[in-house]
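Question:
Now give any protein.
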Amino acid sequence: MELIRIPSLVDNYIWLLTYQGNCIIVDPGTFKPVQQFLEQNAINPVAILLTHHHHDHVDGVKELQKYYPELVVYGPLETSSKGTTCVIKGGEQLNFACFSWQIFAVPGHTLGHVAYYQKPYLFCGDTLFSGGCGRIFEGTAEQMFNSIETLKALPDETLICCAHEYTAANMVFASYLLPYDEAIEAYTLSVNEKRAQKQSTLPSQLIVEKKINIFLRYDDPYLQKVLGFSTTIGSKCEVFAKIRKLKDSF
């Protein structure tokens, strides 16, 4: 299989996973760059996977459906007005063509947000970013924490195929909280070098994220201390919630 990353809008990525001339499309926020890539490379789309309802993830769907009327569009109930033809909610196993997807419900950013996993690929929309996680627009901190826990439990080699190029900004925040952390410092340097050369930082790998992503280090005693928690006060969820609150106002 080949993973394709198509830039869209200001900082979005539309992901394609191809195999033997077929592909799935993840969160097409725009139509034209996807259609051009498919035509230029003679690739046949067999399905669209939607993670949530925000316009920068779905606005290209209906035009793609006009161009490819046989396309099946999978998505949570909140995307039903955006072109979804098969509603999912998490817990399902999708098998079609050569693809097999495990679906996770990951509420927090939105209430119906889902993620798609086919080893080693994780399409997580705006739930988990490299070095960060999504804002909590509709859900609760507890919901988002549980969603992050679900994704953190995947195999270390999982590729984090998130929807935005937010890594550099996320690492500025991580460096602010833990300015002397060697893993964060090294990753920040690597990210800045890539962005200076207009290269993408994605996909990232889960084993890396566990070391450099502040939002996955809620059980780190040193980070808890920096945030003002003692060893006897504050659950992991409370630590996560405080990190998210600090990031929102950073």
About this structure: The domain at 2-248 is CATH 3.60.15.10 (Metallo-beta-lactamase; Chain A). The chain is about 35% helix and 25% strand.
